Amino acid sequence: MTGPLVTGPHVTGPSWVRRTEVELRPDPDRVVARLFLPGQEMVATGRPRSAAVLGRVLALDDAEVERELADLVTRFEGRHHDLEATWEAHGAQVRHGSAGDPPLPATRRRLVGAYFTQEYAVQSAALFNPSMVPHPDQSGLAAGSTRFVMTVRATGEGHVSSLELRTGTVDAHDVVALDPSPVRTRLPVVAVEQGDGRSYEATFPADSAMSERVLMPQVAAESHGIEDVRLVRLTHPDGSASYAGTYTAYDGRGISAQLLRTEDFARMTSHPLGGPGARDKGVALFPRQVGGRWVAMSRADRESNAVTTSADLLHWDEPVVVQRPEQGWETIQLGNCGPPIETERGWVVLTHGVGPMRTYSIGALLLDLDDPARVLGSLTSPLLTAVGEERSGYVPNVVYSCGAMRHGRTLVLPYGSSDIATRVALVDLDGLLDELSAT
């Protein structure tokens, strides 16, 4: 949705920043069908509960099987793509190892699968911390318009975070329009590489729409969350382009950094990041090499902004600190708000700072194009701080972005508000550059 810009006395900040009415809020009807295994504690017979449940389902008479399956199709089929195929797959997983058992009729196979399937609402708790890049397909647009892909962090039951995608356009007048939210979700087929257990390939169905695709945690390192994807369109030395997104993998106890790579958002690969520059959260890639090496923002010391380099995008060297907390609104810690954006005056790095009452604000740095470790300017006051309804949510008083997109002389800045919803602001690039150059 979109509409007129929000104005009024409750909106504060620089005149060159404008909030829009674009907003994405968590939708509890956005569900996936997942394998469900009843508690694996041992029952009195010495068998796991799943075996007992399977036995009870197999004991149902044919009429009841037909009746239950018909009712399930009526109630659930419209919420999923090819639900019966999912039931077949889950049923086969549960009966794996029972090769000597006689084959079951299709209706009973599917009912078995249905008993071992659950709906999971991927964004029942939150939909936030977005990043935005130009879409790989820019065909068929009006002059001056850009089609975009936006990543969002979806959080559901158990505070588990997944990656979702959204698409939309920005027109010549900077009007942001999101495409309609999808009714159904599509999960990928995943192949985990042998070895470290942290690398994998995820392939989505060829007929799936981009905004239907959901990447849930796949390996132990990210079992509790794929968090805060910082997506960037990379330009390689040979002129070709691809997309990469750094993110925080959370296993319920500790964090690590991963790199997601894709060319079309249908096939994605994920690999772990290493080296001193990839410690802690918040690695954000520059969109091209500088001086023959890849460059990234880093927050390896957990409180300062630094620059690190790499030969292969995977191992990151010792970071060089370029900004330490100085202003009151960033005294607790600093970090980046996504990949740097190239301009004729330097690299614009959106930052976040944490101040009193754990208030998160968005600021900016300007780094030299040829030597990104050289700071040309920084904002002394935030360009965006939570106001009004933005202050209320799962984590109050937070505005946070994982990446803005340049559109002509405007930065389209999607941001999470208080760790619950996603909104969009527009930043006049010339106003921002003038402010950065004046410091």
Textual characterization of the structure:
This protein has 439 residues and is mainly beta. The protein has two domains: 17-30 and 122-437, Tachylectin-2, Chain A, CATH 2.115.10; 33-120, no CATH class. It has five helices and 28 strands. It has helices spanning 49-58, 62-76, 83-94, 106-115, 429-437, and strands at residues 17-24, 31-35, 117-121, 126-134, 146-156, 160-170, 176-178, 189-192, 200-203, 214-215, 225-235, 241-250, 255-262, 267-272, 284-285, 294-298, 305-310, 320-323, 333-336, 341-343, 346-354, 360-367, 375-378, 384-385, 399-400, 405-407, 410-417, 421-428. The radius of gyration is 24 Å and the shape is elongated.
The CATH superfamily name of the largest domain is Glycosyl hydrolase domain, family 43
Low-confidence runs: 1-11, 41-45
CATH topology call of the largest domain: Tachylectin-2, Chain A
Mean pLDDT: 93
Into which percent range does the helicity of residues fall?
Answer: 10-25%
Number of strands: 28
Counted up, domains total 2
Work out the radius of gyration.
Answer: 24 Å
Strand content: 35-45%
Biggest beta sheet summary: 6 strands, antiparallel
Strand order of the largest sheet: 8-9-14-13-12-11
Tell me the name of the CATH class of the largest domain. Answer: Mainly Beta
Named CATH architecture of the largest domain: 5 Propeller
Calculate the terminal CA-CA distance, rounded to whole Å: 37 Å
Q: Number of helical runs?
A: 5
Structural class: mainly beta
Global geometry: elongated
GO molecular function, one term: hydrolase activity, acting on glycosyl bonds
Family: Belongs to the glycosyl hydrolase 130 family.
Protein name: Glycosidase
InterPro entries: Glyco_hydro_beta-prop_sf (IPR023296), Mannoside_phosphorylase (IPR007184)
